[in-house]
Design goal:
The complex is a heterodimer. By secondary structure, chain A is an alpha+beta fold. In chain A, about 30% of the residues lie in helices and about 25% in strands. In chain B, helix 2 links the parallel strand 2 and strand 3. Classes of the chains: A alpha+beta, B alpha+beta.
Chain lengths: ~725, ~280
């Protein structure tokens, strides 16, 4: 529980840290994409503008790919470059490079294309409504006991919708590729979360033209939030192709509007929930969930998002009869991808909204109803995994107490009786399984490396990126605190696939939980092996012994068994828990919800760095507030927001008072934190809005244009 | 594209009197830069005016407060003179855009960009603002109200520029003031609806009334018909059903990427109601 300053803070504040666009290489030229503006069509003809000398441009199409034109993904169904047919707008048709950025931009703008247009699905709701549009594997968690609903059970049914969400990282996506003809290597530097994914992608597209792809992240990565999990594969692949063809280093950096247009977003969802609740005991007796995600035109990593979404969709409630069905839906829009929460925020918005709806139909306070049904030791997830701790319940009770929930419920009811403006308070609870789902971590087989140099520098080698979340500070802390060694001399290296072992991608709230705990184990092993009292003294007294390298692989706890077919077993070894309360003020004149205060109590196990953890929690909460209130991305008939002017991320003036607390911090080890703060703000705000106005809205964001429709209906 | 930087106001006026084609004035650049980037501006001449002294600064004479057209929002927000004489005007612009944009963007630019959503225009309209227009051959002063003729269209002649904005010294005196800008967030937002109002109520009777709206028509404008209806009316006698009917004639809200027609209409009506029923701060 120490707070040390982030290692990168000073360099970033002084503007010294190098982000991708700060790097330049001799002879470097610039690359960009020519993308489809058709939702679905067969390419008939591409016409280049005549006023340019074509020989000055390097142009690559699918035909130029020496290797495979398929991006390596959990489901390999997406080409790097479209061949004859485009399946969504923004699909890459050509890679183009030129020494001058401006000329390149103008040239691409003037390329004309003719299609034979084909039928297309662009609207999310239309896509998700019709089962005809489903594709890929259907996931079923069958925990049903064929219980027949009794007469005194209350049936509650609703359909919940959540929208796209844009990651809006500060630094847009970008890559530099440098082909080395003699050594037959491709060096790629970029802003990314997963260097080894990019390595697989570059090696796939280049085929036998290279022996090895060497991937290195830039020094600074300006945010990612999942957006730089898989899309960098495509940029790196095409940059490599352009470098191979031009024999020059090629830099591709996306403009903000292109980044918003063509890269992956959070999956829109439609979640339909049916429940039966005993009106006497107030226990939920039966839950049926139909969880659907709009994957976009290709599946890519969506099956894994679906899997996590389904596993989190039952919420933190015990029920003896649960049936969950999950499936992907196909639309003619760019593939959706990873985003903080990975299917879980959609799931929790639905179930947490639904819980308030049941409580309302029982005329119960949402707190009382949750208290009756919340997970306790001995309960089971629908996957049959046992609940072994009451930490969710502890978070829940704590946040109710801290927010003064009970007093506010009464006070607000009184206020609301005599005012047009309304006050409201709402609850949401959630959890997040750390690391890859099921047997994923076993398959990943992460490896970490520590090298102790003669000069006493302890170098930490992992493939996980610090994209601003502070990973290279917290990982260093886990090593230096275990070795009782100075923090300044413990340095996490910039990930480079030829130097760092594969400790897996920087995703799934796994960096501290899996990689950090593994590093700590390795540090303990070093301590045992070297048997030192003081490592600094030991190094200076035993110089002949150094430099010395230590390595360790992740070993999965053998009790973790998960059946990928039946979705039974232990889906995640450790869960983080959260309970959240949101207080809002509703402006009746403008139909606007103003979040006033948010309390969140987390159990993330041992907290490595309090300041960094608080920053993650507060940032995630704001991303959740934006998701619930303002981040409107797509409007039927008008298309997608094109930039950060229209796509309304909250500003610093929009941030409510946020109160974060971590409990059960005396635990043996840290668990995942990255994603869980995202799960609860949107449903808590939606429930607070119900508390304020008596209006249930089952769709986010709760923009005033949506609210007014319900208000006008109420008046009629 | 050609870039021109005249040294003096005289030189500027001479240069623009000779340019026949497309031309743009670059003051803060917060709109022009984006229009260039988005290819909305592809050709023509870009003329820098932000360094010309005569166009910048806040002064007063006997009857008016004068704001030079390249005066930035930061200058306006920090002006002591405005704090003394036009505090409502000044305070209303506090949350304009963001601190970065406030430092660059200019009041003349906000007007001459011609956007229906221009934040400063509804305020200037209720304060009876005037524009001093200047060219090589003549000077004239017009009411801001008469400046706009359509979407991004004004009465400005090809060789004319806005030199300064005039606001009567006593424009706010004795008035009950109102300004609300509704955007998708609290700062850095483009108005979906903006309503500015001034009223004088004596013994419950409306003696003077000025209401202007933004983002609801092709350009920001005063609501003349609503004002006519309200003038000399007792507050108790205001019929909001009647106002709804008049408003339908006077504003033409649209549905676009940012908002919906119905929302814009209802909120405009609600804001007018809020303004009228607001207790007189007197």
């Amino acid at each position: 529980m120490k707070t040390v300053k982030k290692v990168d803070a000073r360099r970033k504040l002084e503007g010294k840290a190098k982000f991708l666009d700060d790097y330049s290489y001799d002879g470097m030229i610039y690359g960009q994409f020519f993308c489809s503006n058709s939702h679905h069509g067969i390419i008939k003809k591409i016409i280049f503008p005549q006023e340019y000398d074509l020989s000055q441009f390097i142009i690559v199409s699918a035909k130029d790919i020496p290797g495979k034109n398929i991006v390596p993904e959990p489901e390999c169904d997406q080409p790097f470059i479209a061949e004859k047919e485009v399946f969504h707008f923004g699909q890459i048709i050509l890679g183009v490079a030129h020494p001058c950025k401006e000329t390149l931009k103008d040239f691409i703008k003037n390329i004309k294309i003719e299609y034979k247009e084909l039928p297309a699905l662009a609207d999310t709701k239309e896509t998700l409504k019709d089962e005809m549009n489903s594709f890929g594997r259907k996931i079923i968690i069958d925990y049903s006991k064929n219980v027949k609903p009794k007469r005194e059970w209350i049936h509650t049914h609703s359909v919940y919708y959540t929208p796209h969400q844009e990651q809006a990282y500060l630094e847009p996506q970008g890559m530099i590729a440098i082909h080395n003809q003699e050594q037959k290597t491709m060096f790629v530097k970029g802003t990314m979360q997963c260097p080894f994914f990019v390595k697989d992608a570059v090696e796939a597209i280049m085929g036998d033209k290279i022996k090895e792809a060497i991937i290195e992240t830039s020094e600074g990565i300006g945010g990612a939030f999942g957006g730089k999990e898989d899309f960098p594969n495509i940029i790196a692949g095409i940059a490599s192709l352009l470098s191979y063809k031009s024999k020059k280093p090629v830099k591709i950096v996306l403009d903000r509007s292109d980044d918003m247009k063509i890269t992956t977003k959070r999956h829109p969802s439609r979640v339909e929930i049916d429940t039966y609740t005993d009106s006497k005991t107030h226990k939920i007796k039966k839950i049926n969930i139909d969880y659907r995600l709009d994957a976009g035109a290709y599946q890519t990593l969506s099956p894994v998002v679906l899997s996590r979404g389904v596993l989190h969709s039952g919420g933190g409630y015990a029920c003896e009869d649960v049936y969950i069905k999950g499936q992907l839906y196909k639309s003619n829009t760019p593939s959706n991808g990873a985003f903080r929460g990975f299917g879980a925020p959609q799931a929790f918005f639905a179930i947490e909204s639904h819980i308030d709806k049941i409580a309302a139909s029982l005329n119960l306070d949402p707190y009382e109803f949750r208290r009756m049904n919340i997970f306790r030791i001995g309960d089971e997830f629908p996957s049959t995994q046992k609940i072994t701790e009451n930490h969710l319940f502890d978070c829940f009770e704590k946040v109710i107490e801290k927010s003064d929930y009970h007093r506010k419920i009464k006070e607000f009811a009184k206020f609301n009786k005599s005012n047009d403006d309304k006050k409201g308070i709402g609850i949401a609870i959630a959890y997040h399984g750390g690391g890859y789902t099921g047997n994923g971590e076993k398959v990943l087989n992460s490896e970490v490396k520590i090298v102790i140099e003669k000069n006493g520098v302890v170098k930490v080698f992992v493939s996980n990126a610090d994209m601003g979340q502070g990973a290279h500070t917290t990982l260093a802390q886990l090593v230096n605190e275990t070795l009782s060694y100075p923090f300044e001399k413990t340095i996490v290296q910039i990930p480079n696939t030829s130097k760092t072992p594969n400790s897996g991608p920087t995703v799934a709230s796994r960096t501290i939980y899996i990689v950090g705990n593994l590093l700590r184990k390795l540090a303990l092993k070093i301590k045992k092996e070297l048997q030192f009292e003081n490592l600094e003294e030991f190094i200076s007294n035993n110089q002949e012994y150094f430099p010395k390298e230590f390595r360790m692989h992740f070993v999965q706890d053998p009790s973790v068994i998960f059946n990928e077919e039946t979705y039974q077993g232990i889906a995640y070894k450790d869960y983080s828990w959260v309970a959240c309360v949101a207080e809002i003020y509703y402006h009746s004149v403008t139909y606007t919800i103003e979040p006033k205060r948010i309390w969140a109590v987390f159990d993330i196990g041992n907290v490595v760095n309090v300041k960094i953890a608080e920053g993650q929690a507060e940032g995630g909460i704001m991303q959740g507030v934006g998701y619930g209130l303002t981040e409107f991305f797509y409007k039927k008939g008008y298309g997608r927001m094109q930039g950060l002017t229209d796509y309304a991320l909250p500003t610093s003036l929009d941030i409510p008072e946020i109160n974060v607390e971590f409990i059960h911090t005396n635990s043996d080890f840290p668990k995942g934190l990255g994603e869980i703060p995202m799960h609860t703000p949107a449903p808590a705000i939606r429930n607070a809005f119900y508390n304020a106005t008596g209006i249930f809205i089952d769709e986010i964001p709760l923009v005033p244009e949506r609210i007014i429709k319900y208000e006008l209906l109420k008046k009629k | 594209m050609e870039f021109i930087k005249p040294n003096t106001l005289k030189e500027l006026l001479e240069i623009i009197s000779t340019i026949t084609g497309e031309k743009y004035y670059f003051a803060g650049g917060t709109d022009i830069n984006i229009q260039i980037k988005k290819d909305i501006i592809r050709n023509g001449k870009i003329i820098f005016i932000n360094h010309i002294k005569e166009l910048n600064g806040i002064k007063e004479d006997e009857n008016y407060i004068l704001i030079g057209s390249t005066t930035t929002f930061r200058q306006i927000i920090e002006s002591k003179l405005l704090n003394d004489k036009l505090p409502f005007f000044q305070k209303s612009l506090n949350n304009f855009a963001s601190p970065l944009i406030q430092s660059q963007a200019t009041i003349g630019g906000n007007i001459a960009n011609g956007s229906p959503t221009a934040d400063v225009v509804p305020l200037l309209l209720v304060l009876d603002g005037k524009l001093e227009l200047i060219s090589n051959s003549m000077n004239r002063t017009i009411n801001l109200k008469d400046f706009f003729t359509g979407y991004k269209k004004f009465i400005l002649k090809p060789d004319e520029i806005i030199k300064s904005i005039f606001i009567p010294q006593n424009a706010e005196n004795g008035f009950d003031t109102f300004y609300e800008k509704i955007g998708s967030r609290k700062a850095l937002s483009i108005a979906k609806i903006a309503v500015a109002g001034l009223k004088k109520v004596v013994n419950n009777e409306i003696n003077e009334i000025k209401i202007a709206v933004g983002s609801l028509n092709e350009y920001p404008r005063r609501l003349d018909l609503i004002e006519d209806y309200l003038l000399n009316k007792d507050l108790k006698d205001i019929d909001f059903k009647k106002i709804r009917i008049i408003l339908k004639e006077e504003i033409t809200p649209i549905t676009d990427l940012r908002s919906d027609k119905d929302y814009r209409f209802e909120v405009c009506l609600n804001l007018i109601k809020k303004f009228l029923l607001k207790p007189d701060s007197g």
